[in-house]
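From the pipeline queue, job 12 of 40. The input is one protein chain; the requested action is below.

Action: predict structure.
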Amino acid sequence: VQLQASGGGLVQAGDSLSLSCAASGLVFNEYTLAWFRQAPGREREFVAAITWYGSFTHYADSVKGRFTVSRDNAKNTVYLRMNSLKLEDTADYYCAADFRRQRAPTRNDYPYWGQGTLVTVSS
């Protein structure tokens, strides 16, 4: 399983940005996909997830209402649309995948991870 995240960049507070994570080596529609982030000096934290069954979505309270996670099973890609970005959203963003995940999608124990894509929000 390989995950390739992209779309990070430097934006101003209040701007929007979309991240993508392209997956290969898996039957994509059988995987729960998630986004985590890690800011300098902080632990990796859950951002959003979309389940393999029913495409149910979950969000961290800090991003609820601003971020939207979605998936395109035909393109083997998961997206994270980020609106109204804040300074505190600055972090490396990682996508993660788990086959037919039964555990809580918010837990930081996914078996497959992509490399990070850096999002920097400036004032």
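Job complete. The mean pLDDT is 97.
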